[in-house]
# Entry
Amino acid sequence: MTDARDIATEAGMLAPEGTHHPGLPPAGIRRAPEGVDGLTTEHLIINMGPQHPSTHGVLRMIVEMDGEEIVSAEASIGYLHRGIEKLAEHRQYNALGTLMDRGDYVSGIHGELASALAVEKLMEIAIPAKADYLRVLLSEINRIASHLVWFGTFGLDTGAMGQFLYAMRDRENLVDILEGITGARMMFNYVRPGGVLADLPAGMAAKILEFCSGFDKYIEEHHDLLGGNEIFQHRVKGIGAIDRDTALAFGLSGANLRGSGVAFDVRRERPYAAYGEMEFDVPVGSTGDSWDRYMVRMEEMRQSNRMIRQCLEGMPEGDFTAKVPRVLRPPEGEVYAAVESSRGETGIHLVSQGGDTPYRFHYKAPSLYALQALEEILPGHLLADVVMIIGSTDIMLGEIDR
Amino acid sequence: MAIDRFTGEHSIAFIRVEQLFDLARRNSLWYMAFGIACCAIEGLMSASGPRFDFDRMGVFFRASPRQADVMIVAGTVNKKMAETVKTLYDQMPEPKWVVAMGACACTGGPFREYPNVVLGVDQIVPVDVYIPGCPPRPESVQYGFMQLQDKIKKQTEDRLAARRDSH
Ligand code: SF4
# Structure
């Protein structure tokens, strides 16, 4: 009597014993193209989204399956297109921040900063040192808050619930701090061309330091809870690997690029605000799999925590905003300004033809590049990995669709 | 049998089946996990997080429209999305309610000048509660849910009163 398994192996449907590692993509599973004994298989198209509990917004993935294995994946975007770039052409320069807040809505400060930097570059406004420090401080606080959202939802994507609650607990404390400084929980409009909206209120520095010392402990707890879980490790290690060349070819940035082993960080390569004076490490991964991206983001949170402390220690005295006219009218010209947001290089390409509104406002969204790379890396994985890989790249549909 | 709130003794409560169902419905408003834009962070994520913990009001998320009672429209609905929102609403079993959360879902919000944006989700599905704000604080969403509970309670009372009058 022949074992069914032997028949399958002979027909090339199963990998030989011992070649399949549980943590690796099942490259061994092969379907016989003409079928076995005249039985043919068909590809199945599965539509994920736009309402799917874990596609991080309104992404629609159209995946073509061969059994459990993905043959091709295509992203359909535009479900959140609301014309941020076009509306910006009808907004005055100091109102651009409000639109950028709603682009990448989990890390609003970075978007505001990018648009403010572009306007300042065009008008050659000198920024007081204190404003630069406040910008870095708020950027880093927002980076931790944004990474915590990623951390919580990434766990949900892999099937864990507990870490979401812990991440939200810490995030609420950060949101309290942000609210204390800027007056809003999410849509800050705090970074303005010329400086920032307000100084730190009394007692806020102590509150931030208290958070920092608590977070030193909490981040290890978070990592133990999720990263120390064996099931989680099996689900992420070796899955969704983006190699160095692919990452560069697709123009990835942020943790997705650093996970693949390229130490590129806008804060380091083209320092803006007060990042030139900050001391921080740029973590990199090696293989570019989901686990590397996870580790890079966790380390980034530790580094952000370190920078928050440095900001508070080195906070200079002086004004928090330069004297700028109420209605900004930059000269004709064209600039590009970029910041390292939580998701990568967020850039603004601003074209002015005089007047008080931009002629063209282009928003370079790092998530869009990561989404394109997904179409390349998803084939060969299992359906259950799709959600997890999307989660590991931390894409934000608000900035993809704009 | 129930413990009487005032005397502490066992007592019997009389309730109409309809009222009993509405009591249950009011206190287990499960919403569909369907975040469209920025408001989803406040209205769905912070809301189910530990600080605001809507779970204690019986408000919790379900991933499928077939199991949900409430649809929170949390974000900007554009013309491409509108069809999906309508389909999801149709897929929800009766009785169902819709909460329009945020300026975008109420009127189109900061994006209403853009031709692609639907000017308020009430153009597609019937809305029960509007929550203003951009984004509304989780407390506002909580208040919105309390309003919805009141509304459900009132609907039953009205219905019963109408029946009484017709007799
Ligand atoms: S109301 Fe404001 S926060 Fe809510 S979806 Fe619209 S723009 Fe975003």
In short: The first helix of chain B runs from residue 17 to 26. The radius of gyration of chain B is 18 Å. DSSP finds five helices and seven strands in chain B. The pocket of iron/sulfur cluster is lined by residues A 102; B 37-39, 75-76, 102-104, 109-110, 134-135 (CB under 6 Å).
